[in-house]
Specification:
The complex is a heterotrimer of chains A (about 150), B (about 240) and C (about 45). Chain A is an alpha+beta fold and about 150 residues long. Chain A contains two helices and eight strands; from the N terminus they run ααββββββββ. Chain B is globular, with a radius of gyration of 20 Å. Chain B starts with 6 loop residues before the first helix and ends with a helix. The N and C termini of chain C lie far apart (about 65 Å). Chain C is rod-shaped. Classes of the chains: A alpha+beta (about 150), B mainly alpha (about 240), C mainly alpha (about 45). The interface between A and B is large, with 49 and 50 residues.
């Protein structure tokens, strides 16, 4: 084998090993590196009351209620598999609305209601002009259809 | 590739190519940015802040593509001992780092009105910040090589570039592997979930920034080669 | 705050960086190549 080939093989083997190790480490981090818990994770893993976590999902359509004090809101968060009630007092971001994504920082209380101390709006990967609002997006085919 | 091992032959091609990449690249950037700012409709949720997309995505592409280029150059240096590979790696590093920083800055500026936060430690943002630190480490190592009188970079620097390459697929997959605040990929092999009327200015800005980046890298390579020629001559004169 | 303020800030940062990098790279290249030419003229 020529020296050049030896170096090539050595470099490629080393590169494969490094990338393999890196990707393994990264995927092992899967849960640790998760930025938030989805409602289904909360149900399956169980999160004890009072532990500070982030809860992420969709705000259920028609679930948003404003309390009498005017600053407290109640809403349900879902990921399609499980739904969790949540409450928040304060100013929600402009993009926070029913049917769109949210990441809430806070903790569960004893009744299993998520008390958020901070709300972030989570934007999804869909981008479309205002005229197309009301169209339905098909996750599988990436197509827009008029909602009926 | 070894046809270009001779710097004189490389320069014969690089000299005219610099302008041919630079001006069309700049024109495409300006045209794409103007279209993205003036012609496209606002997004149904984000409103006008969606326009940041047309520069944020090319910046991310240059930051990640730049490191991929450095890693390929490092491989060519270690395996084939290509004399220009280290020069190319050094030339890419600073612009790549700059556009990684711009990607983080424009993302942060977009995040404030969209998410309600300038910065969160989610998978995508953290791995992109790691890329910026990798660039800074590479630049420090490359500068040390330059002080040792090399036109290219040392083997240690090249190995560092290869090890750092592991971060590129991690950045790409971060939004898929981990629950992240950053949205998932909009443009996949199956199609685009960005509506066509919002998407098209991204094509000229992506192409324009790529061409322009190529021109910047050629300029910086030419500068390094010329400097090196001067330094080599000075040393010969000093030795008498 | 107005959304356009964010858009203008993002484009401003990018435009400034693009411009500065173009000018610096160009000047560094021209300076170095002129120095190299002067050297070969003398030789």
């Amino acid at each position: 084998m020529k020296a050049k080939h030896q170096r090539l093989v050595l470099a490629l083997v080393a590169l494969a090993a490094i990338i393999g190790a890196g990707l393994l480490a990264a995927s092992a981090l899967k849960d640790e590196a998760a930025y938030f818990y989805a409602p289904a994770d909360v149900k399956t893993k169980g999160v004890e009351p009072g532990r500070a976590i982030r809860l992420g999902g969709m705000v259920v359509k028609g679930s948003l209620r404003r309390a009498a004090d005017g600053v407290t809101i109640r809403f349900n968060v879902t990921d399609g598999k499980a739904t969790v009630p949540a409450t928040f007092s304060g100013i929600a971001p402009d993009l926070f609305k029913e049917g769109s994504g949210v990441v809430a920082e806070g903790a569960f209380d004893r009744q299993g209601i998520f008390v958020a101390t901070n709300l972030l709006a989570k934007h999804d990967e869909r981008y479309m002009p205002r005229e197309l609002e009301g169209m339905q997006y098909n996750e599988a085919t990436h197509e827009m259809k008029v909602e009926k | 590739m070894h046809r270009f091992a001779n710097p004189a032959r490389f320069l014969k091609i690089a000299r005219p190519l610099t302008g041919w990449l630079f001006w069309p690249g700049l024109a495409l950037i300006l045209a794409g940015a103007a279209c993205g700012l003036l012609l496209t409709p606002a997004d149904y949720l984000q409103g006008d802040t969606v326009r940041i997309l047309y520069i944020h995505v090319p910046a991310a592409w240059l930051g990640m593509g730049g490191w991929a280029g450095i890693a390929v150059a490092a491989l060519m240096q270690l395996v084939w001992r290509h004399p220009l590979a280290g020069v190319a790696g050094r030339a890419i590093a600073a612009p790549g780092a700059l556009f990684t920083a711009i990607c983080l800055a424009t993302g942060s500026i977009w995040g404030r009105p969209t998410w309600g936060t300038w910065w969160e430690w989610d998978g995508r943002m953290t791995s992109m910040l790691v890329l910026l630190f990798l660039y800074l480490g590479y630049i420090a190592l490359a500068n040390a090589s330059a002080r040792d009188g090399q036109a290219g970079v040392s083997s240690v620097t090249a190995i560092f570039a290869l090890v750092g390459a592991v971060n590129i697929p991690i950045i790409n997959r971060s939004v898929v592997w981990w629950n992240s605040l950053h949205q998932g990929p909009s443009i996949t092999l199956r199609g685009s979930s960005i509506e066509g009327s919002l998407l098209w200015p991204l094509a000229p800005t992506l192409l324009g920034f790529s061409l322009w980046f190529g021109a910047i890298v050629l300029m910086r390579m030419r500068a390094i080669l010329a400097q090196n020629k001067v330094e080599a001559r000075m040393q010969r004169l000093a030795r008498g | 705050m107005n959304q356009w303020a964010f858009v203008i800030a993002a484009y401003g940062v990018t435009a400034a960086a693009t411009l500065v990098l173009s000018v610096l790279s160009w000047r560094a290249m021209r300076g170095a190549e002129r120095a190299a030419e002067r050297l070969s003229d003398r030789a």
